[in-house]
Structure formats: C-alpha cells, structure tokens
Amino acid sequence: MAGLYIHIPFCASRCIYCNFYSTTSLKLRQRYVDAVCREMEMRSLPPGPNGESLNTIYLGGGTPSQLTPDQLRQLFLYINKVYSLPSNWEDKLEVTIEMNPDDVTPAYAATLSQLGINRVSMGAQTFDDERLHFLHRRHTAGQVQQAVKILRDAGIHNISIDLMYGFPNETLDDWQRDIEAALSLNVEHISAYCLSIEEHTPLWKWIIENGEWRMDEELERQMYEMLIDKLTVAGYEHYEISNFAKPGYRSRHNSSYWNDTPYIGLGAAAHSYDGKRRQWNISNLTQYITDINQGTIPCEYEDIDEDTHYNDRITVALRTSDGLDLTTLSDRHRRYCMKEAQRFLDDGLLQWSDNRLSLTRKGLFVSDYIMSSLIMV
C-alpha cells in the first residue's frame, strides 16, 4: 500500500522562515482543486492484493485549511472515486490535514470529522505572542489551546503540533515555558525544529538588513536536550530526530517516507516515489493548472540506481529510532556501511542490535556528519 500526499499551496499570509512552495493569492483555489482531481484520475494506483491501494492520506501545504468545506468535500469525493479504499476506511486509514490554529472553528472541525479526517497537524511554533508576531504567524498562543478543544469536541483525537526553538534572544527558560505549554495540551504528537535560515525567505532578508545572527550552538544543544528529557518523562516516544509521539501515535504517513514505502504526490510541487523513480511536479501554480487541463502532468523525474537507493536509506532510516535494517541492503552495501560505521560504533555514536544500525543519544547531535560519512560518493 502507499501514501497519498496532496499539496495545497495557499496561505493567507507568508511566514518569514518558510521556503515551501506557496502563494497568498486565493483566487485560483477552485481551479486548482479541479486540476488536482484531474491529476488524481490520471495517476490512479493499481489496487493491492486485497483490493486496497492507500493506507495514509495527507493534505499539506501551504495551509490546506484555506480550502473551503466544499473544496475539501470535492477532494475526498474524488479520493473515494479513484482509489480502492476499504470499507470503513475512516477507521483504518490515517488521514491528516495541516491547519493554522486560527482556521479551526466548530463548523470547520465538524466538516473534517464528517469527511473522515482523523488527524490534524497544527503549527503552534511558540506560545509567546511576540515571537509569533516576529514569525508573521496569524494566530495567538491562546488560539492554539482553543483549537485543540474545538477539535476534541468534534471527535478528532489525534492531534499533532509543531514547535520551534532557536529564536533571536530566546533563553533556555523561554524554551522551557514553550515545552510546558505544549505538554499542557496533552496532544498525541509533537514535532520540534530549530529555526533555520533558508535562502531568499523573508527571514534571510531580515538578517541581511539587520546584521548577521547565528544561534549559539551550545544553547541549541541544551534546548534539544531539554526537549528530549521533558517529552520522554511525559510519556512521549522519541521515534525520529524531530518527532515525538505517545504510544501508538507515530505519524504513519511521515513514517512511510522514512521506511521506504511508496507514495504518490498530487498538486504543484508535490513529490512521488515508487521505489525505483522519484517524480516531482512543477512549482508553478498557473502552469500546473494549464498543463493538467491539457492532459499533461508537468513533472520531472529521476530513476534511482542501487547506490542512490542506498544513500537515500542512510539519510532517512537513520533519522528514526528504529534505525536502518541492514537485511534490506545488498551484500555490497551492507559491507560498505558497516566498514564506514565502525568508528562511530567505537565512539558510541552508533549502536548495532538485531541487524539494525541506529543513532545513540550522543549520535543525535552529530547525525548529519554521521550520515554523510556513510553515504557512497
């Protein structure tokens, strides 16, 4: 089975750190939804041995909650029409939508529940209103708490929130307050990322205009340590470098990326993978709509050879607590991997158990270096 990702590139406003493909112009929403439904029909998946084709559905962005309820209904009508979903699929599939907290209303939450959407991922980022303003986020800290309650009341009991640390002048005490505020919500999943500076984003331009700012590496390490400690004590499983879940609530869709499971991506800038080829659609909204309406999927692709597949496995599987299953590698790649990994095993940065290679806690802090050392060049 595979995962289905649908990219919704519309945002009411643009956050200063974001480099995902998006637009603040909403006038093309309906034409875009129509085009995505046409692409869906053009790229239907063959059913699995029991008639199934999907095990996860994920609406990401952008801000998918900028779609109207009718537009969401249209997407799910086509998903049901095109893919061989099992009976009672709402209880079997993980179906996620990304939302802004201020988009969560009782009526919208009720629509989600009626459509079978059973997981919501919200970008809380911080519970400090000044830092939210700095990021150009639309919501306030109080709206995150309100949104969680509304979703619970609508029957959605799988909620994830994103947190961010490493703001200019942020202290360890500031970060601790954010973690404690997140824990008070008792959500099922928390993702946390250090604020990064991506080229050509408004944040990148802000730094150019206001002078260079760099996160103190020791403070960043302390913040990450605090995050791991506090969430682990609270009962969350640290199952991927940036992701924490209560037992049974790992993100099944994102795990498919890390576990080498095929997925299909629909919409402008969406990526797909079938185990042998990567494909990505054009990052141009109007061109995407035009080409789809002419019966052409505007995309590029890359065939994946054995060495590229090995490198991909290194850079995604080692991000997870499960690590890399060495039995999935060829003899040549397994020998190469263990030869290059030996020094990290000796230094206590990697561990090997039951034919799985994984990062130790110490190795988490130099994960990029370890993974780059294990790939084939």
Describe what is shown at a glance.
The protein has 377 residues and is α/β, with parallel strands linked by helices.
Textual characterization of the structure:
The chain is an alpha/beta fold. It has two domains: 2-258, tm_1862 like domain (pyruvate-formate lyase- activating enzyme); 319-374, no CATH class. 42% of the residues lie in helices and 20% in strands. It has a nine-stranded mixed β-sheet with strand order 7-8-6-5-4-3-2-1-9, sandwiched between helices. α1 (29-42) packs parallel to α2 and α1 crosses α11. The chain is globular.
End-to-end Cα distance: 32 Å
Determine the number of helices (DSSP H or I, runs of at least 4 residues): 15
The portion of residues assigned to helices is: 40-55%
Order of helices and strands: EHEHHEHEHHEHEHHEEHEEEHEHEHEEHH
Q: Runs with pLDDT <50, length 5+?
A: none
CATH overall fold name of the largest domain: pyruvate-formate lyase- activating enzyme
